[in-house]
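Researcher: Next entry: GntR family transcriptional regulator (Streptomyces exfoliatus).
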Amino acid sequence: MRIPAHSVCTAIRDDIVSGVFERGSRLTEDQLARRYGVSRVPIREALRTLESEGFVVTRRHAGAHVAEPTEQEAADLLDMRALLEPLGAARAAQRRTEAHLKVLRGLVRLGQERARRGQGEDLRSLGGWFHETLAQASGSPALTALLTQLRHKIAWMYAVEQPSQPVEAWAEHGAIVDAVARGDAERARALTALHAERSLSLHRLKRPERGRVRVSQHVVNTASARN
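Model: Predicted structure:
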């Protein structure tokens, strides 16, 4: 059975973001095909997609390599998120469905509960799901795709600390959802902009560790492990 290129693309992107493939490291089709247990065809397609997203660069006579963004490019990612997330929240206030609201409210309840218990790892996942759902509620596939790509790149470039007052952070999430539920686009925009600004201090730029090999040789069944 042919494994879809998008599944392979997700697997390679995850390994780039997590640092399995370090910035600047070479990516050969044979190496990747062995790692993920696929033919070279979906690998080739996945590399083209990842190059269009900025995770991979193709060098003349040298092949594909993991990109090496500059510090300025990394800073630009946070600036772009600060512009696009409030726009997404404003659009969500105008276009959200009851299904979106149900999911958002459920995530806020879980987040507030986990915050009171100090379950930091759960909060990280819940926060990602919250912002992904908020983006989807915008009703704009293009905007949702941009925000998803930004989240991947920010996770690649930055280590993000948990807020010192997680209960307050989740109260901010709750206030955003309240504004979205009321259809108050300007308030949703303003609250999301403030939330993004407050999170800036939690981001620490990752420094590449040179000379460290982390690429294992095991085969990954992307058909079952990746959707």
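Model: Note for the record: The longest helix spans residues 71-95.
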